[in-house]
Amino acid sequence: MGDLIEQSGHCPYCGSGQLFLVDPSVSEQRYIEDCQRCCQPILVRVRLDAEGQSCIEFELEQENG
User: Fold this and answer.
1) Cys-Cys link to 43, which of 23, 52, 53, 61 (CB 3.0-4.6 A)?
2) HSE of 8 in the Cβ direction (CA atoms, 13 Å)?
3) How far apart are CA 9 and CA 15, in angstroms?
C-alpha cells in the first residue's frame, strides 16, 4: 500500500472542516466516517485516477441509513 492521500472537506451536518485519509490502493470507495466535531455519520465517496495518485471525485453526504 502506498502513502495515504489527504483530502479535506466539510461535514454535511455541522459544516466543520475536516481532513480525510484516502487509501490509494482502492480506486472506488464508499464508507461511513463520523464527524470529528458533531459525531454524525458522514457518507464518504471517493474515486481515484487510474494511477491511484489523486482523487477525481470526493463527496461527503449525510448518511441516510
Assistant:
1) 61
2) 4
3) 9
Task: Specify the long-range contacts of residues 41-47, CB closer than 8 Å, at least 24 apart.
Answer: 42/11, 42/12, 42/13, 44/20, 46/7, 46/22
Cβ-contact 7, 55 below 8 angstroms: yes
The whole-model pTM stands at 0.86
Give one DSSP letter per residue of 41-62, joined into a string: EEEEEEEE-TTSSSEEEEEEEE
Residue 2: what pLDDT?
A: 62
46 neighbors 55 (Cβ within 8 angstroms): yes
What is the amino acid identity at position 22? V
